Amino acid sequence: MNDSQLAAILASIVLQASPLIIAVCGEILTERSGVVNLSLDGTMLMSAMTGFVVGLKTGNVWVAFAAGALVGMIFAAIVAFGSIRLSQSQVAIGFVLTLLGDDLSAFLGQNYARAPGGVVVPHVGIPLLKDIPMLGRVLFDQDMVVYFAMILIVATWWWLNRTQPGLRLRGSGERPTAAFARGVNVNRVRYLYTILGGALVGIAGAAYSLDVKVGWSDGHVRGFGWIALAIVIFGGWSPIRGAFGALLFGATKALATVLQRAFPEVSVVAFNTIPWMLMILVLLAVGSDYT
């Protein structure tokens, strides 16, 4: 394998991991506020379908992303309202919305399954930086989804750890009584960050159908929402560690592809289980650190 091939593989890993990083950052913001949104899988399926269809109809990739974000905001708002205002189980609401999003995306998107055309995210190399040997091809000769994910990692970490609003956010999730005593409107903070996190999850879902795996089919991104939730736990609710978890998952997906080509006689199903098995092992390892 030469340097060009290695750079192409690493660039593919970064691209595949970027939507997952966006979803992870969104869920971190939500969970840090004290709300657990388990509807990620259904949200990503619905936003992937909606983003592709809206892009197909309008021909505008940014409108398509906005539609995906809107779907995520609606799902997240339902979770927030049900748990905060109605005092219902976040787990139950999340599971119901996951099932709803799965079935609804399949029903509403059935006429657009494997439809040709649509819009894609434009490729934009960063001048000078893209010419850096190896690193430039991997990180700076990508598209806006990758750049947004990179910026989001730093912005989320900075917001949580270096700003007063971030301190109020963490206080609302970790010690809501103390935060309330200091004048923080805990419920308002939870609504705000749950809906914001949902918007990021919606953008992540749309990114898969508009960028990573262009098009729509039933179950297009099924399971990726659960992976994002697992990575949030694996990363200890840290955007930087969560980004490494997403890259690790992307690397195992790339490894599965390479192994499929090297051993064509082995069933493709066997190789597709590698990323999921790795995430289980990582979660078991992380869980053992807390016992």
Structure description:
The chain has 13 helices and 2 strands. By secondary structure, it is an all-alpha fold. A two-stranded antiparallel ribbon has the order 1-2. The longest helix has 30 residues, at 3-32.
Q: Helices and strands in order, then pairings?
A:
Blueprint: H1 3-32, H2 40-58, H3 61-85, H4 90-108, E1 123-125, H5 135-139, E2 141-143, H6 144-162, H7 164-174, H8 176-181, H9 186-212, H10 224-234, H11 239-262, H12 268-272, H13 274-289
Antiparallel strand pairs: 1-2
Helix pairs in contact: 1-6, 1-9, 1-10, 1-11, 2-3, 2-4, 2-9, 2-10, 3-4, 3-9, 6-7, 7-9, 10-11, 10-13, 11-13
Compact overview of the structure:
This protein is mainly alpha-helical and 291 residues long.
Identify the strand order in the major beta sheet: 1-2
**Beta-strand percent range:** under 5%
> Into which percent range does the helicity of residues fall?
over 70%
SSE order, one letter for each helix or strand: HHHHEHEHHHHHHHH
The tally of beta strands, per DSSP, is: 2
Gyration radius, rounded = 19 Å
Average pLDDT over all residues: 90
**Global structural class:** mainly alpha
Low-confidence segments: none
The major β-sheet equals: 2 strands, antiparallel
Apparent shape: globular
End-to-end separation: 42 Å
Query: What is the count of helical runs?
Result: 13
Q: What would the keywords be for this entry?
A:
291 residues, mainly alpha, 13 helices, globular
